[in-house]
């Protein structure tokens, strides 16, 4: 047990820092994915033919290729590409931090799934409510902010909650590119102490804890998003 | 008010000097090959209550929805409050509003009431009523709330201000939707079959509210199946048949002494 102590020589502090990194990446990636998802859903629903095709290519490819492959591809090829472009344009190559790269790569993947969740949720809004917003002179941006997003939220929450939980676990994939999130930290700790069982059980418990805490928030958000909808309980 | 598109017989109201609120001229609307409106004209002066009647598929709802470009007319002229809606052709050859800001501004002064109420389900009744004044028209929130209270009181829903639409009856929702329309201080109110989705016992409460508005001189265009009501409150009745104005005139003439054979038949069948 002293192996898990938060003060050295215990590894508990490292594990918690790993968890924190995982949460940071998950929050960033989920947020970025949400932004991409809103744009993607709008592009797919209301965009011109070219925008529709581009978004379709994006969601199809990202959802077709295994995430691990995408992460390796985007992480190494992506940073390489950015630096080549910078060098060609006459700038110094930059060192992209693992955190930023992780958020960008996972966010890019999340965005494809978010696009479909949000598109479905927007389609589930009773059409008359959108029409009323148009009939009263709302601009497209105002309508998005005041009507479309809040009205689609109750339909999107279950799908988005799934995506959030997937995001927390997908951070483990970043271990393969050497980013110090929870899984890599666990492996290092386990390798150094040979206490594989202890550390992986501990990591598992931390992932479970993250999910349980998430569930509390998700339930609250869902209750708030569904405030205008009669409860289905007992119906 | 006057009506072109039929025989040149200017309505007596056309000379009474009230300002023109709405003017439509040779309006056409095609959905693909389907020619729904085939050149309809009508105009309303301040205080006019125009009832549009007609059978299913006559184009009456489409006509109403073209006024605020919820449906874009294929061709024709629409003037609201003396301002003509500028239209242009898009890359597919469809007619669309040329200036988004103009159409948004015009829409924000046309109070539309829908058949299926269309209150925003994530907002309480009060929030529904103040939504457009606060976020589109830029009215201060306190002022908008005070006005909304008065309006909700007037449609008999003062107690329900913090209730979400899903928890209201159809009649209450429609009265709330009328309060939402009134809150923008509309130049013209547009009613699209406001009682067609209601249970029979709830129709009366909604018609009473609309009738009161008509009697206080609100300008309105009303698409309805309630012939008795149209006869009571309208200053002018337009009978649409197959995308054209078949007959129009004061309600006592339209219902009391219809000239067209189709209108006679329509009134018998409804009646």
UniProtKB/TrEMBL annotation, chain A:
Pfam families, per the entry: BPD_transp_1
Keywords, in A-Z order: Cell inner membrane, Cell membrane, Membrane, Transmembrane, Transmembrane helix, Transport
ABC transmembrane type-1 domain: residues covered: 19-218
GO cellular component: ATP-binding cassette (ABC) transporter complex
InterPro entries: AA_ABC_transptr_permease_3TM, ABC_transp_permease_HisMQ, MetI-like, MetI-like_sf
PROSITE patterns: ABC_TM1 (PS50928)
Cell inner membrane recorded as keyword: yes
Membrane-topology annotation of the record: Multi-pass membrane protein
Subcellular location, record wording: Cell inner membrane; Cell membrane
GO molecular function terms attached to this record: transmembrane transporter activity
Protein name stated in the entry: ABC transporter permease
Species classification: Bacteria, Pseudomonadati, Pseudomonadota, Alphaproteobacteria, Hyphomicrobiales
From TrEMBL, chain B:
UniProt keyword list: ATP-binding, Cell membrane, Membrane, Nucleotide-binding, Transport
A GO-annotated cellular component: plasma membrane
UniProt GO molecular function: ABC-type amino acid transporter activity; ATP binding; ATP hydrolysis activity
Pfam families in alphabetical order: ABC_tran
Record domain ABC transporter: where: 22-267
Top-level lineage group: Bacteria
Location(s), subcellular: Cell membrane
Membrane topology recorded in Swiss-Prot or TrEMBL: Peripheral membrane protein
Main location: membrane
SMART domains assigned: AAA
UniProt keyword annotation of Membrane present: yes
Family: Belongs to the ABC transporter superfamily.
Name this polypeptide is given: Histidine/lysine/arginine/ornithine ABC transporter ATP-binding protein
Organism: Manganibacter manganicus
């Amino acid at each position: 047990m002293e192996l898990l102590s938060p003060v050295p020589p215990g590894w508990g502090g490292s594990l918690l820092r790993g968890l924190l990194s995982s949460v940071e990446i998950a929050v960033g990636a989920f947020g970025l994915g949400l932004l991409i998802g809103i744009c993607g859903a709008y592009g797919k629903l209301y965009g011109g033919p070219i925008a529709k095709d581009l978004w379709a290519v994006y969601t199809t490819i990202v959802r077709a290729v295994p995430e691990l492959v995408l992460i390796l591809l985007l992480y190494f090829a992506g940073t390489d590409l950015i630096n080549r472009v910078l060098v060609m344009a006459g700038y110094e190559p930059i060192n992209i931090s693992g955190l930023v790269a992780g958020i960008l790569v996972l966010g890019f993947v999340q965005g494809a799934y978010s696009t479909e969740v949000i598109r479905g949720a927007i389609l589930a809004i009773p059409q008359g409510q959108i029409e009323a917003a148009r009939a009263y002179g709302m601009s497209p941006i105002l309508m998005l902010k005041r009507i479309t997003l809040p009205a689609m939220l109750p339909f999107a929450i279950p799908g988005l909650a799934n995506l959030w939980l997937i995001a927390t676990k997908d951070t483990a994939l970043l271990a393969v590119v050497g980013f110090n999130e929870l899984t890599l930290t666990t492996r290092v700790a386990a390798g150094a102490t040979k206490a594989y069982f202890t550390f992986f059980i501990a990591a598992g418990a931390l992932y479970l804890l993250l999910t349980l805490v998430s569930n509390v928030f998700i339930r609250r958000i869902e209750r708030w998003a569904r405030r205008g909808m009669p409860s289905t309980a007992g119906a | 008010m006057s009506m072109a598109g039929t025989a040149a017989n200017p309505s007596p109201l056309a000379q009474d000097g009230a300002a023109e609120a709405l003017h439509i001229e040779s309006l056409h609307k095609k959905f693909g090959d389907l020619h729904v409106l085939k050149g309809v004209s009508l105009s309303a002066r301040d205080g006019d209550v125009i009832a549009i009647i007609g059978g299913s598929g006559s184009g009456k709802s489409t006509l109403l929805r073209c006024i605020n470009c919820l449906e874009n007319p294929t061709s024709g002229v629409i003037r609201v409050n003396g301002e003509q809606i500028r239209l242009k052709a898009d890359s597919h050859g469809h007619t669309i509003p040329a200036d988004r800001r103009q159409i948004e501004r015009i829409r924000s002064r046309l109070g539309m009431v829908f058949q299926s109420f269309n209150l925003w389900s994530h907002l309480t009744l009060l929030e529904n009523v103040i939504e457009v004044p606060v976020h589109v028209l830029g009215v201060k929130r306190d002022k908008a709330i005070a006005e909304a209270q008065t309006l909700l009181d007037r449609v008999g829903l003062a107690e329900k201000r913090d209730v979400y639409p899903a928890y209201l009856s159809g009649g209450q929702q429609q009265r709330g939707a009328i309060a939402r329309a009134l809150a923008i201080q509309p130049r013209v109110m547009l009613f699209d079959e406001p009682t067609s989705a209601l249970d029979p016992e709830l129709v009366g409460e909604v018609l009473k509210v609309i009738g009161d508005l008509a009697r206080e001189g609100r300008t309105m265009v009303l698409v309805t199946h309630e012939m008795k009501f149209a006869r009571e409150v309208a200053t002018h009745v337009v009978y649409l048949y197959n995308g054209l104005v078949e007959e129009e005139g004061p309600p006592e003439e339209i219902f009391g002494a219809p000239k067209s054979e189709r209108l006679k038949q329509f009134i018998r069948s409804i009646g």
